Amino acid sequence: MLKASIDIDLLRDSITALSVIVSEVRLKIKPDGISVKAVDAANVAMVIFDLKAGAFDSYTAEETEVGIDLVKLNDILGIVEKKTLVDMELDMTAQKLHLNFGGLSYTLSLLDPSTIRSEPRVPQLDLPARVVLNGQDLKRAVKAAEKISDHMTLGVAGDIFFMEAKGDTDQVRLEMGTDQLIDLKSGEANSLFSLDYLLDIIKSAGKANEVTLSIGCDFPILIEFDVAPNACHVTFLLAPRIESD
């Protein structure tokens, strides 16, 4: 069961972050919060989502798992005015999620969790470099790279973090030193990633005050940030693009 109330801005931003790579998820509901682990259909990107009980104005839950259509949920949340409190209640017997806000009542049918892809195993990665930067800086580099190519290299060289894209004739490169970064753990790192996925991820990560990137050489990248501090934490794991010789 679940009975909770939450601010629409926090709920909407959280669900938006979750839905950039998947459209249907298994929500794991527990007394301490709601979590999701999901991978996209192409097995390129994984999302690990944690919405803590403390993010809610009120929260009462028993452990259960439900399937949710994120497209439909986002459509409903899209009409809610800012600073509105959303009341949520699960009816497990009828397999419905009831949403109440601003005098409106919506009933969203739940999906059968068994029809949704199982929770993936999260790989244990020991990546040599770690970069912490403002989300706007990451967004700026990714948007610039979009004009040049469909892929982008992220790496660390000494005390410099760089993001670079090369096209047939043009290229763009952004370098950031320790004085421009929030934090840097230097290590050998140089990996190529699809811009399609990075463009989706920065829709949410670009708003964060701090984004942590863990990078290696031709290894997946970990992209972590808080949608709201101590309330909702999101991690993306993105596989590298390996170019053949």
Structure write-up:
The protein is α+β, with helices and mostly antiparallel strands. It has helices spanning 8-18, 70-77, 135-146, 195-205, and strands at residues 2-7, 24-30, 33-39, 45-52, 58-61, 64-69, 85-91, 96-101, 104-109, 129-133, 151-157, 160-166, 171-176, 183-185, 189-194, 211-215, 221-228, 232-238. The chain has 4 helices and 18 strands. The strands form 3 sheets. Strands 6-2-3-4-18-17-16-10-14 form a 9-stranded antiparallel sheet. The protein has a 5-stranded antiparallel sheet with strand order 5-1-7-8-9. Strands 13-12-11-15 form a 4-stranded antiparallel sheet.
What is the number of domains? 2
Strand content: over 45%
Please report the number of helical segments: 4
Estimate percent helicity.
10-25%
- H-E order: EHEEEEEHEEEEHEEEEEHEEE
SS content category: alpha+beta
Radius of gyration: 19 Å
Strand order of the largest sheet: 6-2-3-4-18-17-16-10-14
> What name does CATH use for the topology of the largest domain?
DNA Polymerase III, Chain A, domain 2
Number of strands: 18
End-to-end C-alpha gap = 54 Å
What is the CATH class designation of the largest domain?
Answer: Alpha Beta
**Overall pLDDT, averaged?**
96
Q: Which parts are unreliable, with pLDDT below 50 for 5 consecutive residues or more?
A: none
CATH superfamily of the largest domain: DNA Polymerase III, subunit A, domain 2
CATH architecture field of the largest domain: Roll
Keywords: DNA replication, DNA-binding
Domain Proliferating cell nuclear antigen PCNA N-terminal: 10-101
Family: Belongs to the PCNA family.
GO molecular function, one term: DNA binding
